[in-house]
UniProtKB/TrEMBL annotation:
Family to which the UniProt record says this protein belongs: Belongs to the GPI family.
Keyword Repeat among UniProt keywords: no
Active site positions: E344, H375, K499
Coiled coil stretches, renumbered: none
Record-listed E.C. numbers: 5.3.1.9
Catalytic activity: alpha-D-glucose 6-phosphate = beta-D-fructose 6-phosphate
Key words, A-Z: Cytoplasm, Gluconeogenesis, Glycolysis, Isomerase
Protein name from the UniProt record: Glucose-6-phosphate isomerase
Annotated organism of origin: Litorilituus sediminis
Gene that this polypeptide is encoded by: pgi
A single BP term in Gene Ontology: gluconeogenesis
Length: 534
């Protein structure tokens, strides 16, 4: 990755004041881009027009276009798992599905039809529980990619949800999380959906077994499982062995990565909440972003620009984190979702061919809904030595008609924070401000470094389309970065050791084995736990 990284050049860019780049009065306008319901302002990034066009040329020289075509045409770009990466197909029209998948497109389309009819039957009360009740609640059991996209989309589109059906998502294996969920449910009116691509994930299976036992204890008939349980998985055998009726299992395919799977039948709980039409609009918003991504020149291509600016901050300016700041209560889970989709995709140090990489890759992603972050970590972002680039996300229209004044204040804070992060306060400005002698000692404490780069993403309003486009925007940004970092963004081998060791620890805890290659620290912890639970 032969990016411009002569130390003197990098130093000159870091010392440059972003605010000085606005001497070019057209900067605000030229460093902004509108795509359907999204507007991206990247003018507060620490990059000049020439530097950006060099980056774009570099991306072209890296044959990024070929990589994009390879993904959309179904090449097995996930080489370590020998899989294609075709989550985009799930939101594409059927003719494109047939063009890429051939006959298998039939199965995909049939699954969409089956899913849509389940949604209608449940929402219209045609599908009822084993006691004949209409369903009032849906409990989703899944983790990681089988949970996060749903969690975000459900809260983001809460205003599009029917009042008759509450959707709950259970991911963590902590018994308290299970107890909390079940305490709000009645077995006779609860539909359960187990989502697991592999149907082997420890947390999901234990949660599913406990919920199954709860329902059997409550309803005392196996009918409950065959009538009220659905599964979404690529492992139909395991799902049926668990006891779910074969006709109630919706397939996933290995060419859909877990963290990119909300567009598949994994979206069933979302469609149940917002209806089939809104779910189609959610996919349509993403499909529009797919077309933009495939067709727009890189200089006007939102995912590519966000990816390149992220690489500029990471690999040229050496910034190690990215703060994701949604000034939108309904998007409060978005930073967590990005932690999975970005850090599980690009959190790697080996190339797609297995070579050790000599450059940095995925940034550390963190964030919180605005304005909460301002009263938490923004102090560090304004005054610590570390520069932490940020993505601000805000809707122009309030999600609720009430409290209009609140939205003005929210938006004002959002715009103010990106400006404050850029401007900062210099020593001279502080001194000028601090008129009186006695406060002069405060001067150094009030200096704010500024020069922190940021993007601001405006959504016209929170709609299924705009949220679909937002998801697809970040999916493609992450794919472009992984490609230009020459790694495989679609596997996650790094999660395996923890899973393996958790089984060894559990075996010791359950007295099934004493043999362990664990450290004396972990052995001590286990013994302390066992003593406490004697
Ligand atoms: O859908 P599954 O197979 O239960 O996996 C859940 C999650 O676990 C992971 O494999 C990580 O452990 C994620 O990639 C995946 O989304």
């Amino acid at each position: 990755m032969d990016l411009l990284n002569s130390p003197s050049f990098v130093q000159s860019v870091k010392l440059r004041r972003i605010i000085d780049l606005f001497h070019d009065e057209a900067r605000g306008q030229s460093f902004a881009l509108k795509m359907s319901q999204l507007f991206l302002d990247y003018s507060k990034q620490n990059i000049s027009p020439d530097e950006l066009s060099n980056l774009i040329t570099w991306a072209r020289d890296c044959r990024l276009n070929d990589s994009i075509d390879a993904m959309f045409s179904g090449e097995k770009i996930n080489n370590t798992e020998e899989r294609a990466v075709l989550h985009t197909l799930l939101r594409a029209p059927s003719e494109i599905k047939y063009a890429v998948l051939g006959e298998q497109a039939q199965e995909v389309l049939q699954t969409e039809v089956n899913m849509a009819s389940i949604v209608d039957d449940v929402r219209q009360g045609k599908l009822t529980s084993c006691t004949g009740q209409k369903f009032t609640d849906v409990l989703v059991i899944g983790i990681g990619g089988s949970y996060y996209g749903l969690k975000v989309a459900l809260s983001a589109l809460s205003q599009y949800q029917t009042q008759h059906l509450n959707v709950h998502v259970l991911s963590n294996v902590d018994g308290q999380a299970v107890a909390d969920k079940l305490s709000r449910l009645e077995a006779k009116s609860t539909l359960v959906i187990v989502i697991s691509k592999t149907f082997t994930t420890q947390e999901t299976l234990l949660n599913a077994h406990s919920v199954k036992q709860w329902m059997l204890d409550e309803l005392k008939t196996d009918d409950a499982i065959s009538r009220q349980w659905f599964a979404v998985s690529s492992n139909l055998t395991k799902a049926t062995q668990f006891g779910i009726n074969e006709n109630s299992i919706l397939p996933m395919w290995d060419w859909v990565g877990g963290r990119f799977s909300i567009w598949s039948a994994v979206g069933l709980p979302l469609a149940l909440a917002i209806g089939n039409q809104n779910f189609e609009k959610f996919k349509l918003g993403a499909y529009e972003m797919d077309n933009h991504f495939q067709q727009a020149d890189f200089s006007d291509n939102m995912p590519v620009l966000m990816a390149l600016l992220g690489i500029w901050n990471r690999n040229v300016l050496g910034y190690h984190s990215l703060a994701v700041l949604p000034y939108e209560h309904s998007l409060r889970a978005f930073p967590g979702y990005l932690q999975q989709i970005d850090m599980e995709s690009n959190g790697k140090s080996v190339s797609i061919d297995g070579e050790k990489l000599s450059w940095a890759t995925a940034p550390i992603i963190f964030g919180q809904e605005g304005t909460n972050g301002q009263h938490a970590f923004m102090q560090l972002m304004h005054q610590s030595e570390d520069i932490i680039p940020a993505d601000f996300i805000v809707s122009l229209k309030p999600s609720t008609k009430a409290y209009q004044e609140h939205h003005k204040v929210l938006v004002a804070n959002c715009f103010a924070q990106s400006e404050a992060l850029m401007q900062g306060v210099t020593l001279k400005q502080v001194e000028e401000e601090l008129k009186s002698e006695e406060t002069l000692s405060l001067t150094p404490h009030k200096v704010m470094k500024g020069n922190t780069p940021s993007n601001t993403l405006l959504l016209e309003s929170i709609t299924p389309e705009s949220i679909g486009a937002l998801f697809a925007l970040y999916e493609h940004k992450i794919f472009v970065q992984g490609t230009l970092w020459q790694l495989n963004p679609f596997d996650q081998w790094g999660v395996e050791l923890g899973k393996k060791l958790s089984s060894s620890v559990l075996d010791i805890i359950n007295g099934k084995s004493t043999q362990s290659h664990l450290s004396t620290s972990s052995i001590q912890l286990i013994n302390t736990f066992l003593d406490a639970n004697k």
